[in-house]
């Protein structure tokens, strides 16, 4: 309790912050231990060997990633850029705390997408800020950026840029980049300012050092035993191992021989000049040793004496191989056929889709309906449907308003009609006029049921026809005779003659058809 | 009891980075409220002649028990306006007053738990002030006598700085 403190203003950074620091410290101590292991400080030989293995492994993985990247760059025709890219990656790793194991595949992906080293470097840098700012892991950010570069902005939704999917789709990549810059710029610098960031930075540096040590270990082993030729080194290792195994076997069987030679039976046998015990034991142990060594260094392919091993395969093997090859070929053919079929189906479906799009039955139906006699409301409804189908938002809004107004008008009209009272009889107040005085029938006054007597007026028909006596004789019908002639003959005669002429010229005879004869006879 | 002011550390950082003048003004303002407490606390520490003679620094070394030196102990009382390292629960003090030296801490707290008895603690002239863990003879006493005025003023100064900083953005 050396220090007393009165905190006036405090702030809780939460246990997480502390956890991060603890984690960082632990990670750092591990890395330092590894590094110390490399130098052989304060650690056991086993630990040093363990570190050596891990460091060599890290170096190998690193080397593999570097070679992949170099190959990718070369294939893009940018082989001359490799040293510059490598230097940039190592600098960026030291500055950002992102390991080169992460940066290399990211660079490769971006290079493959953009084809430009400068653009890839720019995106690589931006991805670090985005990753730190959004909490999304670095690899995902790089993948999303490279997808966005080729117009696929689907993955950008998770970064919370405040843009809708539709906006993201219509944005150019430059816009996307500037939006990202506005949102996440400086995130990496802010992160590196924290304890966790600093620890990560140091950790990365220590990791890089470890990789370098691993590299040195591998290189030095190869150069020490095989003058820098790794293949020779591998062959030597194999040879050394075989020799070591032989030595072990010789030693073990040597001990066995010693054991039997110093046994009681051997001592007794040595006293008897006729007993060949030692030689027998030696022969048996020698043959055992030989058998063991032969089993240990078994020839996998070659000749054991005159007997070939592993070189020739039997007839059964050949048949099996042939069968497997034939099966594979058949399978390949089947697959190809299935693929062709599937492609044809897809093509058909596409064609049908295209045709159905051209046909657009719904639009046709609307057009047909619009040509008929329809009410105003129906007409507007159809037009609205058409506008929606065509995606004309402005027109759809206008028509929607119109439809609403028309519906309202209809409703008002219906209400007004319903509220209209029943029309009264226009003759309800009509009284029959007093016709008596006008006709000189004074005595009819007061007899409401009396019907006035009308005389039929003279229409002048009889006079004009000289039929003066017809007045008052309505049942009499005058007889009028009319004669119609055709080419100087009566109509009946003309028709009959025409039919006879037709028959004589070979046409169907129509004669007597009206008198119960059916059918026609060609003469 | 300390007061939690969320974002105070970030505010101090931001002020230092983006508005150094405002940072300096805020700092000066806070110092103006803390200095009197520190001065008062230093005054409560006994002089070498008033402290128990065996406790005062002398040539003969007495085991590892801390030796008292009035001037050293006075220098040990001060204030801090930068965040401390978070403790296990994650708490960090943004503004604090401290009594750093071991001898100063002994003068501050000796007899607080076991009472004023025996041959050592009764020799300290100062009386305790404050309660519980905030009880003491020098720094805690001065803080107790201030009655929270400095704390309120510091909070106000920080809030004022935050308002100014946010307004200037």
Q: Rounded to an integer, what's the Rg of chain B over CA atoms?
A: 19 Å
* Category by helix and strand content of chain A: mainly alpha
**What can be said about the biggest beta sheet of chain A?**
2 strands, antiparallel
- H/E topology pattern of chain B: EHHHEEHHH
- The general outline of chain A is elongated
User: Which ranges of chain B are low-confidence, i.e. pLDDT below 50, for 5 or more consecutive residues?
Assistant: none
Number of strands of chain B: 3
Give an overview of the whole structure.
The complex is a heterodimer of chains A (about 525) and B (about 170). Chain A is mainly alpha-helical. Chain A has 20 helices and five strands. Chain A has helices spanning about 15-40, 45-75, 80-95, 100-115, 115-135, 140-150, 165-170, 175-185, 185-190, 195-225, 230-260, 265-270, 275-295, 315-360, 360-370, 375-390, 395-420, 435-440, 460-465, 490-505; strands at about 5-10, 300-305, 305-310, 485, 490. In chain A, the strands form two sheets. A two-stranded antiparallel sheet of chain A has the order 2-3. In chain A, strands 4-5 form a two-stranded antiparallel ribbon. In chain A, strand 4 and strand 5 (about 490) form a beta hairpin. The longest helix of chain A has about 45 residues, at about 315-360. Residues about 40-45 and about 520-523 of chain A have low confidence and may be disordered. Chain B has about 170 residues and is mainly alpha-helical. Chain B has one domain. Chain B has helices spanning about 10-20, 20-45, 70-75, 100-110, 140-145, 150-169; strands at about 5, 75-80, 90-100. Chain B starts with a strand and ends with a helix. The model of chain B has no long low-confidence stretch (mean pLDDT about 90). The interface of A and B includes residues 5, 15 and 17 of A.
List keywords for this structure.
heterodimer, A: 523 residues, mainly alpha, two-stranded antiparallel ribbon, 20 helices, 5 strands, disordered C terminus, B: mainly alpha
